[in-house]
């Protein structure tokens, strides 16, 4: 099976690296291109046997499954320009949340799916979010699930929870990296610890926390109960967080959904759906 990647930006490159390094696909079975070919050439320098092709048309023609990893407003034009090349035996996979599989199906006749990745997939970990179109054959559903299972835990979701699921899975690492950096900065500012030491401690704490959850030793609520002794230091810290954080996460969800709504309106004007 030949896999095509249209777009080698941040997420496109992460998918390429994860699929190759997990052994899910061989570099020689991977066809890539990018609007700026030099960016795709950087990937080929990393994996010499990857096939760097000149155009989207070349990648689509020579691939069985095509991951489209470009900005949402660019997808419609690419599909319209190459719609005849998406024959029924092929599969198109979009990685962007504002475009639904139903929209994809209005333009091309092949099997369609959406697979929203996470930067954590680069470590062959975390979740990838799957939504299949009605036109997606059982063969392709299984193939996509098997591919993504090599680099993540695939979770099938309904369209109505796409944005919030993506907030948690795809945006979440950036959100919690920001919070962790603020935690480190505050520790450095308010105490005598240096940035390097605080960063090591915080990073190892997060890794350990992940291991506790992965091994199902504790749930998030029980973990808090175990650490937060009544009248202790952790409890005082939690109280300070409750006071200062307020509705920050509610506002975060509102902000991402407002942006999602605007993006959806733009894609709806393109797809007519």
From TrEMBL:
InterPro entries: 6-PGluconate_DH-like_C_sf, NAD(P)-bd_dom_sf, P5C_Rdtase_cat_N, P5CR-like_CS, P5CR_dimer, Pyrroline-COOH_reductase
Main location: cytoplasm
Every Pyrroline-5-carboxylate reductase dimerisation domain range: 160-261
Keyword DNA-binding part of the UniProt annotation: no
Compartments where found: Cytoplasm
EC number of this enzyme: 1.5.1.2
Keyword Oxidoreductase: yes
Keywords linked to the UniProt accession: Amino-acid biosynthesis, Cytoplasm, NADP, Oxidoreductase, Proline biosynthesis
Entry-linked PROSITE patterns: P5CR
Lineage: superkingdom: Bacteria
Catalysed conversion reaction: L-proline + NADP(+) = (S)-1-pyrroline-5-carboxylate + NADPH + 2 H(+); L-proline + NAD(+) = (S)-1-pyrroline-5-carboxylate + NADH + 2 H(+)
Pyrroline-5-carboxylate reductase catalytic N-terminal domain: residues covered: 3-97
SUPFAM superfamilies: 6-phosphogluconate dehydrogenase C-terminal domain-like, NAD(P)-binding Rossmann-fold domains
Gene3D superfamilies assigned to the protein according to its UniProt record, in alphabetical order: NAD(P)-binding Rossmann-like Domain, ProC C-terminal domain-like
One Pfam family hit: F420_oxidored
Pathway: Amino-acid biosynthesis; L-proline biosynthesis; L-proline from L-glutamate 5-semialdehyde: step 1/1
Family statement drawn from the similarity comment of this UniProt entry: Belongs to the pyrroline-5-carboxylate reductase family.
Protein name: Pyrroline-5-carboxylate reductase
